[in-house]
Amino acid sequence: MFADRDEAARLLAKKLEHYRGKSPLIFAIPRGAVPMAKIIADALQGEIDVVLVRKLRSPYSPEFAVGSVDESGWCYVADYADREGAGPEYIEREKSAQMAILAQRRAKYTPPLNPGGRIAIVIDDGLATGSTMISALHALRSKNPSRLICAVPVAPPETLARVSELADETVCLEAPEFFQAVGQFYRHFPQVEDDEVVSILKAAHEKPLR
Fold first, then answer.
1. Which residue from 76, 127, 71, 125 is spatially nearest to 100, judged by alpha carbons?
2. Distance set, CA 19 to CA 23, 43, 52, 121, 189 (Å)
3. What was the pLDDT predicted at 68?
4. Which of 18, 86, 136, 158 lies at 20 to 30 Å from 25 by C-alpha?
5. Alpha-carbon span 56 to 40, nearest angstrom
6. CA dist., res. 167 & res. 144, Å (int)
């Protein structure tokens, strides 16, 4: 169990130490991973940005993802979505709703950095179904980074196997068999608000590169 996201980020940074000084671009999946990405970017002498994706919520359990969507509208639908009551019409409605949220967030956040030709490291505070990480990796791969890395503190083994197929390297600190929710692996797991994300991104993008 991690004390909090800060501790998890510091441990991840140690595992990613070989990218220090290579100008990596650290992408956070908002919002929980943004403070983590800042710690990792500082440790690796890299830059921070966000990759905007949203999960597609199950109609019966909003916390459970049946897929995900990125800013371009590319959509991942899990093979179990239909069993969860998320048929094609529902998916289209949910996709539209989540893309509207993505547009609102992009308007608040700093303009995106280009990962083309750079080392791109995608951070989240943990994976459950892996849906949003799948969309994040797909979105960044389309922009031709020189290397694409998925880095998370915790994920179930089957999810880790699924996302690893989309990355050049996957770093995960813990892969427990018994997994209910990401929050169970943190003693302190507060919600991260938009204001904090905006503040971190603004400060990072105003800071000169080392």
1. 71
2. 8, 10, 23, 10, 27
3. 97
4. 158
5. 28
6. 12
Report which residue type is found at 168.
D
Which of 107, 142, 176 is at the close of a domain?
A: 107
Q: Is the peptide bond before 31 cis (omega within 30 degrees of 0)?
A: yes
Judgement on whether residues 28 and 131 belong to the same structural domain of the protein: yes
CATH of residue 68: 3.30.1310.20
**162 and 186 belong to one structural domain:** yes
Query: Within 10 A of 191 (CB to CB), how many other CB atoms are there?
Result: 7
Distance in angstroms (rounded) separating the CA atoms of residues 1 and 184: 8
Q: Are strands 25-28 and 53-57 parallel, antiparallel or unpaired?
A: unpaired
Report CA-CA distances (Å) from 13 to 95, 98, 129, 147, 210: 33, 31, 24, 17, 18
Q: Is residue 207 part of a domain?
A: no
The rounded average pLDDT for each run of 10 residues, N- to C-terminus, in the chain (210 residues) is 96 97 96 95 96 96 94 95 95 97 92 95 96 97 98 97 97 94 95 92 74
> Phi and psi dihedrals of 8, rounded to 5?
-60, -40
d(CA 15, CA 91): 37
Give dist(CA 56, CA 9) in Å, integer.
26
Helix, coil or strand: residue 34: helix
Phi, psi at 52, each rounded to 5°? -90, 110
